[in-house]
Amino acid sequence: MSGAPKPMTRAARRAARLDATAAHLSRLSVPQDSGWLGRARADALERLRTLGLPERRDEYWRFTDPSVLSAETAAPAEVFRITDEPVVFSDIDRLRIVFTDGEFDQQASDDLTAEGLEVTRLAEAAQADIHWAQDVYGKLEERGQQPVPRPLATLNSAMARDGVLIRATGKVARPVSLIYRRQKEAADMVLHHVIRVEPGAEMTLLENGPAAARYSIVTEACIGAGGMLHHVRTQGRDHARSGITHLFVRMDKAAGLKSFTLSANGRVLRNEAMIWLDGEGGSAHVAGAAMGDGDFHHDDTVFIDHAAPRCESRQVFKKVLRNGAVGVFQGKILVQRPAQLTDGYQISQSLLMDERSQFLAKPELEIYADDVKCSHGSTSGEIDADHLFYLRSRGVPEAEGKNLLVLAFLTEALEEIARDDLAEDVRSRLESWLGRHRH
Amino acid sequence: MLEINDLHVKLEEEDKAILKGLTLSVKAGTVHAIMGPNGSGKSTLAYVLSGRGGYQVTGGSAMLEGQELLDMEPEERAAAGLFLAFQYPVEIPGVGNMTFLRTAVNAQRKARGEEELSSGDFLKAVRAKARELKIDAEMLKRPVYVGFSGGEKKRNEILQMTMLEPRMCILDETDSGLDVDAMKLVSEGVNALRDAGRAFLVITHYQRLLDHIQPDVVHIMAEGRIIKSGGPDLALEVEQNGYADLLAEEGQKA
Questions:
Q1: Under an 8 A CB cutoff, do B94 and A398 touch?
Q2: Are A247 and A276 in contact (CB under 8 A)?
Q3: Which string of b and e fits A217-235 if b means at least 16 CB within 10 Å?
Q4: Which of A130, B147, B183, B214 has the most CB atoms less than 10 A away?
Q5: Nearest CA in chain A to B90
C-alpha cells in the first residue's frame, strides 16, 4: 500500500504517546524501595503514565531533540580524562562527595559529618521511616509539571539510584562539592538530590566531573526564610556525553539563590531551572556561560515564577558558538497578580564565531501585576570588528584580541558567581578553553 | 621614518576613491601637521596606515623605516612602531583598561623579541605616567573607555602611546572635544615624547593645537592629496583665510 499516512488526531497522538511511554516503562527496572521513597517512586511512575515521555514535536522541545535523553539505553561514549590542567575546584577547601559512574563512592568521599550540615545518601535515607526529605523528594518536581510537563524529571524521580540529601542548619562557609567521576564507557547516571536550607542558613553547592555517557540529575531545593544557596557547576570538557539536569527551587521570604553553570562542549545538554519565589523579598539569580565547538547542542530552559511581592530575579545566559555549534535559550518570567514591585531581568546572548553556528532563543514575559519592572533581551552577534581592530592597532595579535573580547562577552554571566575564588577558578577554565579552541 | 608614495585608496564596498595619489615624507625627529577641509581624506589616511578594514589600496606604497606597512597585519604595524591615537576611541565593555594595556605592551615586546614586563614593573610604570597625564588610577581599572569623558579618552590614548613607545605616532584630531586645559595636558604628553628617533603626524582642523605642539612642516590636504606644504605659517594662514584661496589656487593648477 502506498500513499501518505492519515494525520492523527490529538487524542490519537496522546494515546500513542502514552502507549509508547507505558511500553518504555515496562522495560525499565525501577529501583525497589520500601517506605516513603518507594511511595515517591510509585507516584512518579503514575504521573509519568499520564504525562507521557517528551517528543520532538512538543513545543517545549522545539529546539532540542529529546530522543537521546529519553532513549531506554545510553549510547556508550569515550571516557574523557583531563590531564592538561588541574580539575576545577581542586584548590578550594570543600566537603567532597564523590559519585563514580553514578554511584556514591564512599572511599573517595570525605567523611560526611560537618558542622551546620546534615548529609545523607539517598539510598540510606529511604530506610528511615520519617525523613525531612520526604516532603520534598518528587514534590517540587511534581509542582514543576505546570505550566509545562517535564516528564524527564519525573522519570528521574522514579529511577534515580543514588543522590544526596543535604540539610543546612547554619551558615556553612565550606562548600559541599559533588564530584561525578566516570570509569565505564556506557555509564548512564541518574541522580536525585534534595537540599533544604533552613531559615537564615547558608550553603554553597559545587558540581563538576565528566559524570557519564548520559546523565540525568534532578536537584530539588527549598530555601527557608532569609536562607541562601550558592550553586556553581561546571559541565565539560568530554564532548561525546549527553545530559539533562533539572533544578527545582522553592524560595521563602527573603531567601536568596545564585546558580551559575559553565558548560564546555557536550553533544546534547539541556539544563532546566524552575524557580518559585513564594515569599516576599526573595532574590533568584540563574546564570550560565556555554562554550561550544562543533557538534554541540546546548539548551538552557529557565522558568522563574514570581508569586510574591518585592522579589528580584535575574537570568543571564551567554553562549560562544563556533564550527556549527547550536545554542538554545528558552526563558520565562511569570509575574503573578500579587507579585507587585517585582524586578525581573533576563538576558540571553550568543557570540557566533562563524556563519555555521546558530542560536535559537525564546524569551518570554507573562505579567499579571501592574507595578513591576521587567526587562528582557536576546541578541546574536559576532565579534565587533571595530573592537578587534582597536585591540590589534595596539599590537594585540588577532587570536589574543578575540579571546579578550570573548571573555568580555561572558563577563556579565561570570559576575553572577558569588565567591571570588570560585569565579577565578571558572575564569581560568574559560581561558584555557579559549587557548585550545583557536579560530 | 615614514615614506608614503603616490598612495591610492578606495572604499572596499563602493567604487569611491578617497586617496588619490598622496605623497608624504616624514623624517625622524620631526612633527608634521595635516590640515584640510572635511572629507579630504585625513582620517582615511590614518586608518589605512594603521590597517583598518573597509579600504582597498589600489596603488602606491607606505614604508615605515624601510618596511612596507600595507603588507602587514595591524598588530605587526604596531610592533613595527606605528601608533594611531584615535579620533573616536571605542568603548569595549568587559575588557579592563589595565589588562588590555599590559597585554598590548607585552605582545609588542614579544613580537620584537624583548622580554615581557612583569606585572609589578608594568604597574609602576603605568602609574607614574598616568600621574603625569593627571589620569586617575581608578579610571585605569575600568573597562576600556566605558564611562570615560571625551577628555579622559584622549588622555588615555596618550597614556597608551607613552607606554607603547612607538616610533611613528599619528594623532587623528586628538584636539576634538577637548577643553583648553585638557588640550594643554595632552600636548604636554605629546611634547614629552618628542625626540630625535620619533616622528609625529598630527591631523587637525584647528591651528590652536599647533600652538601647543609646534610642527616642523604643515601640509594641506584636499581631494585625497597633499596640495600644499609649508612651515608653521601655513597653519596660521588657514586659520585666518580658510581653505577657499588654497583650493582655488589648486583648481587653477589643474
A1: no
A2: no
A3: bbbbbbbbbbbbbbbbbbb
A4: B183
A5: A387
DSSP code at position A162: B
Q: Are strands A117-121 and A164-168 parallel, antiparallel or unpaired?
A: antiparallel
Look up the domain containing A138 and give its range.
Answer: 32-383
Residues of chain B falling short of pLDDT 70: 251-254
**pLDDT for the residue A163:** 95
Residue A17 lies in a domain: no
| CA–CA gap between residue A22 and residue A51 (Å, rounded) | 11
Mutation test of the interface with chain A: which of B72, B83, B92, B106, choosing the one with the most A Cβ atoms within 10 A?
A: B92
Q: Do A389 and B74 touch (CB under 8 A)?
A: yes
Q: Which residues of B touch A396 (CB under 8 A)?
A: 75, 100, 103-104, 107
Mutate to test the interface with B, among A393, A405, A431 (most CBs of B within 10 A): A393
Distance of CA A62 to the CA centre of its chain: 18
pLDDT of residue A150 exceeding 80: yes
Alpha helices in A150-272 (DSSP H): 151-159
The position carrying cell 575564569 is A427
C-alpha cell belonging to residue A197: 536550607
CB contact under 8 A, B94 and A408: yes
CB distance B74–A405 less than 8 Å?
A: no
- Average pLDDT of the residues in A344-358: 95
**Residue-level pLDDT at A54:** 95
CATH number of B2-92+169-253: 3.40.50.300
Domain-located, residue A198:
yes
Q: Is residue A410 part of a domain?
A: no
Give yes or no for residue A126 having a pLDDT over 90: no
In this prediction, residue B252 carries a pLDDT of: 64
Out of A387, A398, A410, the one facing B73 most closely (by C-beta) is A398
| Residue ranges covered by each domain of chain B | 2-92+169-253
Structural domain tally of chain A?
1
**Both ends of chain B: CA-CA distance in Å?**
30
| C-alpha cell at position B74 | 595591524
With respect to residue A310, please indicate whether it lies within any of the assigned structural domains.
Answer: yes
Q: What does each C-alpha distance from B224 to A100, A204, B22, B36 come to in angstroms?
A: 71, 64, 7, 10
